[in-house]
Amino acid sequence: MTQRISKYQRFKMSNPIIQFFKFIYLSIKIMLVVAGGHGGTRKVN
Questions:
Q1: Distance (Å, whole) CA 30 – CA 24
Q2: Half-sphere exposure (CA, 13 Å, Cβ side) for 29?
Q3: How far, rounded to the nearest angstrom, does the alpha carbon of residue 24 sit from its chain's CA centroid?
Q4: Radius of gyration for the alpha carbons in the chain, expressed in angstroms and rounded
Q5: Is the dihedral of CA 21, 25, 27, 28 positive or negative?
Q6: Using the 8-state DSSP alphabet, how is residue 15 labeled?
Q7: The organism sits in which domain of life (predicted)?
Q8: DSSP character for 42?
Q9: pLDDT at 28 (0 to 100)
């Protein structure tokens, strides 16, 4: 593994707040996909 990770990327990776918001963002995106039926291909009650 090469050490070409910049300080900013390492900061992003090690920052728990950013990880938390990334998790929240993914959760909301998944909820929207599930609630929207993903283009009407799946019906979710």
A1: 10
A2: 6
A3: 7
A4: 16
A5: positive
A6: -
A7: Bacteria
A8: S
A9: 93
Q: What pLDDT, on the 0 to 100 scale, is given for residue 27? A: 93
Give the pLDDT confidence score for residue 19 in this predicted structure: 86
Tens-place pLDDT, residues 1-45: 567 768 888 777 778 888 899 999 999 998 888 887 665 555 555
CB-based contacts of 16-21 (< 8 A; 24+ apart in sequence): none
Rounded Cα distance between 26 and 33, Å, is 11
Contact 18, 12 (CB under 8 A): yes
Supply the pLDDT for residue 15: 82
Give the per-residue pLDDT at 39: 58
- Give the amino acid at 24: I
Q: Which two tokens stand for residue 25?
A: 């963002």
